[in-house]
């Protein structure tokens, strides 16, 4: 299957429109239609319903594979390019919102200066976007985070040829305003919160659906509000305003008087940060990973990195 045809097919299904896909890809609408017809001819099955535009059953099956196929191709292209080597003087780091601790950002800046990087770019991105951009060479290093049980590994984001290196671990708390009826508790179980109202903020904290999947037999968590952004401050302001409960690493509440963090003891989740990299990256990445995983003395309530 021609990757260009797969990319066009993905755009048509994603937009639900031939014209919108054409606009995104820079093609004419007739060219998009011809490419879809070519792909259908090659596979011998109809992939796209024309009115309304959407995937057939076969198209839906193909769509399940398209993202990983295109990612794999882009990752292979990036790896071939890395073989050429050479120093660009640029360092690109992607970081999830709750992985952006003061310690991590300080280390990134120090290592970049030490390596003589004349251009440092730090991007805050969703977890899957960080993984994909590291795999395809848009980022030299990524810092991703998530919640996991003590005996379980952090669920890896989808990616091609990625290696995760543990950076730090932090206890998880239930964040709520001081006037909340549960604010006096010394600890909480998820089972205590079956009737609670939650804020689902997948771009900042763990999506509630993923949290239920990690825990396994947890009760269904009722969503009161969904926050679709990636700003930690906006999320915590919603929590402080009593819009719902949320899970956060303990350090995220440091210095806040309008939020209380009650330890979550059952299940005993931990918040983890991992560095994502690929084999054969620039030498500065080795230095950066080593510095991020180097044990340090804890300062206040900030996360303590450990290898």
UniProtKB/TrEMBL annotation:
| Identification of the protein by name | LysR family transcriptional regulator
Q: Which family does it belong to?
A: Belongs to the LysR transcriptional regulatory family.
Q: Domain of life here?
A: Bacteria
Q: Which organism does this record belong to? A: Streptomyces daqingensis
Q: Where is the HTH lysR-type domain?
A: 1-56
- Keywords linked to the UniProt accession: DNA-binding, Transcription, Transcription regulation
């Amino acid at each position: 299957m021609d990757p260009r045809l797969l990319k066009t097919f993905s755009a048509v299904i994603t937009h639900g429109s031939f014209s919108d896909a054409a606009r995104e890809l820079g093609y004419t609408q007739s060219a998009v239609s011809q490419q879809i017809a070519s792909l259908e001819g090659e596979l011998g099955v109809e992939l796209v319903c024309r009115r309304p535009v959407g995937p057939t059953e076969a198209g839906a099956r193909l769509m399940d594979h398209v993202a990983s196929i295109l990612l794999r191709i882009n990752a292979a292209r990036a790896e071939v390019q890395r073989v050429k080597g050479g120093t660009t003087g640029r360092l690109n780091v992607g970081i999830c919102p709750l992985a952006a601790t003061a310690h991590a950002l300080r280390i990134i800046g120090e290592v970049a200066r030490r390596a003589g990087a004349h251009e440092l770019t730090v991007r805050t991105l969703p977890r899957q976007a960080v993984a994909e951009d590291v795999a395809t060479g848009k980022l030299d290093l990524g810092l991703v985070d998530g919640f996991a049980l003590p005996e379980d590994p952090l669920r890896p984001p989808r990616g091609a040829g990625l290696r995760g290196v543990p950076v730090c671990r932090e206890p998880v708390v239930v964040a709520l305003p001081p006037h909340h009826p549960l604010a006096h508790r010394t600890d909480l179980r998820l089972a205590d919160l079956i009737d609670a109202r939650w804020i689902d903020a997948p771009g900042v904290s763990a999506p509630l659906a993923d949290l239920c999947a990690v825990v396994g037999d947890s009760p269904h968590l009722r969503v009161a509000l969904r926050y679709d952004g990636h700003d930690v401050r906006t999320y915590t302001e919603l929590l402080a305003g009593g819009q719902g409960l949320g899970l956060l690493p303990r350090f995220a509440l440091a210095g806040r008087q309008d939020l209380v963090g009650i330890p979550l003891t059952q299940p005993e989740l931990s918040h983890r940060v991992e560095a994502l990299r690929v084999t054969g990256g620039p030498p500065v990445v080795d230095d950066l990973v080593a510095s991020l995983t180097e044990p340090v003395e804890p300062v206040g309530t900030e996360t303590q990195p450990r290898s």
